[in-house]
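1st attempt posting a full record on here, be nice pls
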Amino acid sequence: MAATANSTEASTADTMVGGGHHYCIIADGGRQYRVSEGQELEVDFRPAERGSELVLDKVLAVSKDGKLQLGAPVIDGAVVKAEVLGLVQGEKIYIQKFRRRKNYRRRTGHRSVATKIRISEIPAAG
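the predicted structure (as tokens):
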């Protein structure tokens, strides 16, 4: 029974470290993303054409087969390449202004534009 508990702990530790998954952590637009090849995500708007290549050079960490390489703060020479899939609009955000007892009410809306990308290549851990 103790062997079963130890093997469970080992598998949990592998998944926490990355256990065979090839991924990296990038910084873009003030946010950090955990990405792997083939993943699609939305980043801040960029004036890029559909089908063009986008190079993200702020790579903070790379993990492959449980080996983790950390940058201080970034890994020199490591770049993530992505394909631009197009522009998308986010959900509508409503802004309401209200002053009590003044007969003042304003409601406006905003939809921010983002760039949808697919990760095509991530660096190897070294």
